[in-house]
Amino acid sequence: MANNETDIKIVAFLCNWCTFTAADLAGTSRLKYAPNIRIVKVMCSSRIEPVFILKALLDGADGVLIGGCAPGDCHYSKGNFYARRKIALAKTLAESAGLDSDRIRLSWIPASEGPKFAHVVNEFTEHIKNLGYNPARREVYI
Amino acid sequence: MNKGLWIEGPIKKGILDFLNGLLADQKIKAVLMPAKNKGGDSYAWFLMEKNGMLDSADPAPPVMTTQGANVVSYLTKKGPVWEKTAVLLRPCEYRAVIELAKIKQVDLTNLVLISFDCPGAFPLEKYINGDPKKLDEIFDTCLEKQTELEGARNVCTICHRFSGTGADIEIGLIGGKGEGFWLVPGSRQGEELIEGVAGSKTDNLDVRENAISERTILQETKRNNMLDSFQETVMGPENLLNTLSSCINCHNCSRVCPICFCRECYFDSKALSSEADNILQRAQRKGGLRLPPDLLLFHLGRMTHMSLSCVSCGACEDACPADVPVSMLFALAGRNTQAVFEYEPGRSQDEAVPHTVFKFEELKDFETPYIKEYSKEQ
Amino acid sequence: METMIDSRMIMTDFLAALFDKLDVAAVAAMSKLPSGEKAAYTLFTDKSGLKECVPFFPAMPANAARAISKLTREEAPSKTVAVFLRPCELRALTELIKIKQASLDNLLIISYDCSGVFPFQKINLSDETKLNAYQDAVSTGKNSEGIRPVCAACTRFTPRGADIAISIVGRSADQPLVLSFPSEKGQTAAKQLGLDVSKTVEASPAVESLARERKTAEEALTEQVNESLSGAQGLVNIFDRCISCHACSYVCPICYCKNCYFDSQTFEYFPESYFTRMTAKGTLRMPVDRVLFHLGRLSHMGISCVACGMCEDVCPVNIPVSQIFKTAGSKAQAVFDYIPGENSDDPLPLLAYAENELEEFED
Ligand code: SF4
Ligand code: SF4
Ligand code: SF4
Ligand code: SF4
Ligand code: SF4
Fold it and tell me: Which of A105, C21, C180, C225 has the fewest beta carbons closer than 10 A?
């Protein structure tokens, strides 16, 4: 149904040191990627509380992308290990609530990998388009 | 100036038509009012614009879920709304809004406050566990006929400020003849909004005003009698403790109370926590101590904090999981403390909350004239 | 399994012995209130009030772990305090200790195999028929009619982690207490009590049969809750009546925060923001973030939810909060292989990590 939905919205929480830098690099290298993401920069992926993700989903975001440094490469040495646990928790709770945990994606994208960033965004946007709109988007009683 | 506008026809539909008209004419941008929840077994609040008005919007719902003043506070606590917004409130909700405006938890700018002659509300628990359709019908009949609402909350049965006096627009039902209602402007703003609405103008509302005075006197007597006899049963620490014996110290009464606005309640603060040995000493003095401690202090303390502004809305009792008659307790406390300062919460925005002001010469009864007594003994 | 012995003491003797032989400074247990109808958790510093004690009264007006947290949070007692806790209260206390909201120092924990409680509004001291039926159910190891749904589906009803454990399921109320002493503190207490440890008692088969009944009930509950938790629609339906009073979090022993995140400025918005959100759908339900509060609270404490049922007991609009938290919480617990309150040495999952784990959640 949603293949041609152009206003699919994806909220992306990106860590300052790796994935946000990768996004920057993708931009300066003029790589094309889907325009559906709205980026929120955080200092570390471990700053992302599951509540941020749940809030985005309940308020109608169609997908949530979390980007951080690869495990072992965290600027603060172990933040992303904690992040992984929090994302696992958020996904599990979303799943238990029947909220399609597939709308949440955690990707480790190093600072130097602009192309990987563009690729992940495109792939995830495509995936979300296939899922269609988040049903919460139009739910007035939520 | 016309005193009011009589609109003939079914009441709730008429009110909604009026609101829809204001929205269509862009005299207001949005309406904040209750509507049925999704399942139709309770109510919630909705901020609605022209295209979003719900069919189930209900200007006078039979039950109070979230106290409306709390919702107005959520909306405007951080600043004024930019465009005119009509808010439908029960009279006690309206009064709470005024109290909150005094302590800067509500910004009245651009709000159009609309209230109605309220027949009371059912206890939340009764509504939730009952047959909503039947209760809706009973309520709507009472609203139209302005008869007593059977099964209403205790505080509602003794409510003596049952009409929306002071609101920008009052929806007048008391004293009405047949199916219909008056739109009565209470401010310049209200007057402007009513202008041009179809209905029969009237510059004499004596029927309504007389009927209100009559009922007020009746209700005041009823209120005083009931509170007097209630006072008998709760006087003294022992009776009070018995009245509170089912209280589980959950503080939900204060959380839902519109007047209790503090983000961190004093009675949950560090001020009242102490080391185990201190608590043990307290227990030792009496041979025992109920845990968590300070249950009575919480209620009495809350009374000192907010009973002057208690509008007797009953939200506390509705939300109490332990069936404590907490809104009656606060109605009693409020009656007594408000009388000292001749203060009536919600009456006027210009009246300061008594404990925020003083007069040089006042309250002599509360001072002990030490010198005089002393000299007498000489 | 620790050896159980016949203490030859009935409850009143046992309570007195706590003062006389163990020299405790105080005992905390449920006791009758002067009104004669209700009971509340009470701290006694001498024997005079003990006749009012009803430690097994099947109601939980407050999760006692909260009370113990209040008692010990600032500073632990300097002398021993004996506290009666239901197993879920004990688990909650263990969780609170991990987050430094309570202290075990100088506490002597007495627990027992729990047959569940009624919703606290639904049981009075004078309800003899109900209480007798409940006692029958205790003695035969069955779920009593009318106990809370989460209690009927509670499979962790044995007193793990207690210093003194009392065995009551499958035994009659007037028989002397059957005790075991699983911890070192407990062993010392046993010696001080001067008990004859040779009088051992067999475990009652009723415990096993209750466990089986509970397991079945738990499975049924899980299935039923999972069915209702079906996405945005399901969530709206479940929490449709919620008035956002947050009583559920206030009474939750695990929700210890003085200023809850969901009552904080983070969730206060400028009026413009409300209007923007209204415009998107034409209508905005208020108070906002109602469903978010529940899911968010789950994300904060679901891993530690001990399924004590308090949240559901206090909800003024009868939302089955604890059934949802028990079910969704246990799924989160499973991801981290964590059982709240089971072992005080298990770190809270979000405060720990392993370098190689949870690959299925990343890419
Ligand atoms: S104390 Fe109770 S009755 Fe009084 S204003 Fe607060 S909620 Fe309303
Ligand atoms: S009166 Fe009711 S709502 Fe208030 S603290 Fe007691 S039990 Fe809770
Ligand atoms: S919901 Fe979260 S922030 Fe609120 S009290 Fe519970 S743990 Fe604390
Ligand atoms: S969420 Fe409910 S059931 Fe779970 S620990 Fe808290 S109060 Fe108990
Ligand atoms: S106690 Fe009930 S009504 Fe209050 S916030 Fe929790 S679920 Fe909602």
Answer: C21
Residues in A touching B44 (Cβ below 8 Å): 141
Cα distance between the two ends of chain C: 45
Q: Which residue of B has its CA nearest to A141?
A: B38
Number of separate domains in chain C: 2
Looking at the fold, whether C280 and C184 belong to one and the same domain comes out as no
For residue B235, with 0-12 CB atoms within 10 Å meaning exposed, 13-18 middle and 19 or more buried, which class applies?
A: exposed
Where do we find the tokens 């009370």? C67
Cβ(B3)–Cβ(B202) below 8 Å = yes
Residues β-bridged to residue B172 = B182
- The phi-psi region of residue B205 (left if phi > 0; otherwise alpha if psi is between -120 and 50; otherwise beta) is alpha
* C287 prior amide bond cis, ω within 30: yes
C315 and C281 co-located in one domain = yes
Alpha carbons C89 and C247: distance in angstroms, whole number? 18
Chain A residue nearest residue B36, CA to CA: A141
Nearest CB to C361: which of A96, A106, A141? A106
User: Residue C51: which of C29, C81, C79 has the closest Cα?
Assistant: C29
d(CA B338, CA B311): 11
Give every CB contact of residue B124 below 8 A, 6+ residues apart in sequence: B63, B64, B65, B318, B319, C243, C316, C317
Q: Is residue C193 part of a domain?
A: yes
Of C59, C66, C67, residue with least CA distance to C28: C67
Which two structure tokens, joined as six digits, stand for C29? 């247990």
C302 CA distance to ligand 4 centroid (A)? 8
pLDDT given at position C163:
97
Q: CA–CA separation, C25 vs C45, rounded Å? A: 6
Q: Domain extents for chain B?
A: 4-224, 232-346
Q: Is C261 exposed, middle or buried (0-12, 13-18, 19+ CB in 10 A)?
A: middle
Both tokens assigned to A47: 């700053």
Is residue A62 within 8 A of residue A103, CB to CB? The reply is yes
Q: What gap in Å lies between CA A7 and CA A30, rounded to an integer? A: 22
Chain B residues within an 8 Å CB radius of A141: 37-38, 44
> Is the backbone of residue B166 left (phi > 0), alpha (psi -120 to 50) or beta?
left
Element (H, E) at B29: none
Query: Does any ligand 2 atom lie closer than 6 A to the CB of residue B248?
Result: yes
Q: Are residues C213 and C239 in the same domain?
A: no
d(CA A136, CA A65): 17
Q: Domain range holding C278?
A: 230-361
Q: Measured between alpha carbons, how far is C196 from C352 in angstroms, rounded to an integer?
A: 44
The single residue listed with the structure tokens 């005094």 is B102
Pocket probe mutation, ligand 1, options B71, B95, B311, B326, max atoms within 8 Å of Cβ:
B311
Tokens 């928790």 sit at which residue?
A89
Residues C236 and C186 in one domain: no
| Rounded Cα–Cα distance for residues C200 and C3 (Å) | 7
- Chosen domain end from C196, C218, C240: C218
Last residue of a domain, one of C166, C196, C218: C218
Q: Which domains are seen in chain A, by residue range? A: 5-132 (3.40.50)
Q: What is the pLDDT of residues C31-59, one digit of tens each?
A: 999 888 999 999 999 999 899 999 999 99
